[in-house]
Amino acid sequence: MKTTVEWIRADERLPYDGAGIVAAVTGRYPGEPEDDPDSLSGQEFWLVLPMYFRRIHPVEETGEIIENCFYDSDGVVRLPIGRPTDDEIVTHWAEMPNLPGADVQRLYGDDVRPALRAVSDQ
Questions:
Q1: 3 state SS of 115
Q2: Partners of residue 82 on adjacent β-strands
Q3: Start-end of H helices in the chain
């Protein structure tokens, strides 16, 4: 099974609120001068992570409201490229692919077992 991914620039268009997406994230690993030179310490990265998009994201600890941000399962908030930040940024995003053999991204309840059987028979 194959799928095609359409990457969308995060400074041109944003996902809908609550969308589960994959995001291309860039930044720099934290580093110290005494770190092993063969480690990733201090190196730049660009990688793909599963995330969610929020139009409004309240920060419980501070009461701050962050608008139009991406966040992951660890609670890390990242802003789209073009917004001022010193942290990791999202350069592009894409919709999650559909489930194998299906035309949806999520199945629940009684629909799960038949869908799993259908793709295991292929």
A1: helix
A2: none
A3: 112-120
